[in-house]
Amino acid sequence: MEQRILGKSGRPVSVVGLGTWQLGADWGDVPERAAMSVLEAAAEAGVTFFDTADVYGDGRSERLIEAFLRASPGAGITVATKMGRRLPQLPENYVLDNFRAWTDRSRTNLGVDTLDLVQLHCPPTPVFSSDAVFDALDTLVAEQRIAGYGVSVETCEEALAAIARPGTVSVQIILNPFRRKPLERVLPAAREAGVGIIARVPLASGLLSGRYTADTVFPADDHRTFNRQGEAFDRGETFSGVDFAAGVAAAAEFAGLAPEGATPAQTALRWVVQQPGVTTVIPGARSPEQVRANVAAALPPLSEATLRAIGAVYDTRIRHLVHGRW
After folding, report:
1. C-alpha span between 176 and 173 (Å, rounded)
2. Cβ density class 182-194: b for 16+ within 10 Å, e for less
3. Which label site among 42, 116, 282, 299 has the fewest CB atoms less than 10 Å from its CB?
């Protein structure tokens, strides 16, 4: 597995990581044994970067990772967690006392003294312009509660604001063939500043796998059912903000562009890791088979002709559908 350095942290991480939202909540039920098998398969396949959050299953995802790491000493996994969603999303809640409480909880959940990386979890936009917030994050580093900090963002403008902060290690942002705006300014700015890019939602909530039809029904406790219009959190987190029926049609066209021997999902992941400035991509997985398929996305680079054809699908079918702020 190719390793890339995660921004200013100096840590090498696998170019294909593992997102673990699905092991906590909001993607249907994942039994504990199944979740552990996913973590085990990822490590066996060379994955060295797990991404989680303190609110994924109210800490369940973090605790599962702790159990895995305790059973697998020396696995060499960098764990990135997130904080900020345990209280109403008001800028005044992003203060040092809360940061200490949240990181202490995550340290307990993950069984570590110092967290590898803590990311603000898509906070309100005014947070990014607050010097006090970033001073507080620097204090957490000085107190050795965390080794470094980053941000998870919804918009390119938020990403650019975070990149301008000298202590920012990484920015996590939605990036996939149906969500391309970060290519214009965010990735070049991150490269210039030495900030890592963690690409999330790389398969547009599964759309780019090519497995869904307009008639596909998801469980009631799956965000692809209850958040299609942003009823629970930012709409962009579900199908990248694309209307499901229109996305299915575009995904069918995209699937036809997969190189011989590659699946549509592997093609989408290869597209992401091929973008200059991307450090790691964090697809989720609910089974060891999905993990191994994701890791197999370390394909030869996509050809220029394939890249142009993928761009044409976006231009003709998706660009006009994507919400303006993305």
Report:
1. 10
2. beeebbebbeebe
3. 299
- E strand or H helix at 79: strand 78-83
Q: How far is CA 299 from CA 258, 265, 270, 303, 313, in A?
A: 11, 12, 7, 11, 21
DSSP letter at 235? G
Residue pair 264/220 in contact (Cβ under 8 Å)? The answer is: no
Residue type, 309: A
Q: How far apart are CA 131 and CA 138, in angstroms?
A: 11
Q: Hey, CA dihedral for 215, 205, 310, 271, is it positive or negative?
A: negative
In this structure, the strands spanning 280-281 and 149-152 are unpaired
pLDDT tens string 171-222:
999 999 999 999 999 999 999 999 999 999 999 988 998 888 888 998 888 8
Q: 0.85 exceeded by the pTM? A: yes
What DSSP character marks residue 192? H
- Report which of 73, 77, 82, 72 is spatially closest to residue 11, judged by C-alpha positions: 77
